[in-house]
Specification:
about 250 residues, Rossmann fold, binds 2-amino-2-deoxy-6-O-phosphono-alpha-D-glucopyranose
Amino acid sequence: MKIIVCKDYEEVSKKAASIVIKEMMLNDELKIGLATGSSPIGLYKNLIEAYNNHLISFKHVTTFNLDEYVGIDRLHPQSYYSFMNENLFKYVDIDKENINIPNNDISKLDSLADEYDARLLGNQRDIQLLGIGKNGHIGFNEPGTTLSSETFITELSEQTRIDNSRFFGSLEEVPKYAITMGIKNIMYAKKVLLIASGKSKAKVINKAINEDITKEIPASILQLHPDLTVVLDEEAACEIKNLDYLNRI
Ligand code: GLP
C-alpha cells in the first residue's frame, strides 16, 4: 500500500487527479471506476482543468460508478446520475454510451444487480476511485456486508443517512436503499485510489488501513488489494502512527 499525506483538501485533489491523469495519458481507453460524495469533487475539477488544457480526453474512456440511490428518480438533483453530470460529465468529451451508472429503476428491481454485474465482469477497471464513509463504508457497502459480495441492493445505515442528509432537505428525504457494487467488484479493479480529508475521517482511516480486516469496517479489505494508493490530508491522516511501516507493506 502507498499512503500519500498532503497538506489539505486542495492538495489531495491535485495529487489524486495527477494519478488519474497519468493513467489516462498512458491509456486513452482507460476504464475508470468513479465515486461520488464530497471527497472526489476537487479531483473531478482538476480532471476538467486537465481536459480544458488538452492534456487528457475522455472520448474513449469508459466509466463505471460505484453506486446509486434507489427510491429517487435518476433526474433528482441528489441522484448520483445528476451528481456525475454536474461535477464531471457535462464538462468533458465523454461518450454517453461509455458511462455506466447502476440503474435504479424500481420496476426492474429484481434484475438491476445482475445487469450491473454483467457489465462489470467484462470490464475490469484500470483504476477505481473511492471515498470512505465515517463508518468505514465504501460505495454503499455498509458495516456487516459480506466481503465477497457483488452488486446488490442495500439498506442504508442510519449513520450514512444522517451523514448524507446534508445534501437533502431533511433526513426523511434521504433514500433508505441504494444499489452498490459489492466489495468483490471493487477489489477486482487493477488499481484502487482511496481519498479522504478532514478530521471526521481520521479514526476510520486508521481502522481501515492499520487495524484488523473486518466486515465491520468494509474499507479494511482494501489492505489486501495488491495496488492500493491512499491519498489523505493531514487531518485525515492524524490518527495513523506507523506511516513509514505501512508504506513499506
Ligand atoms: C457516500 C458514497 C460513498 C462516499 C461516501 C463519503 O455514502 N456512497 O461512495 O465515499 O458517501 O462521502 P464524503 O466524501 O462526502 O464524505
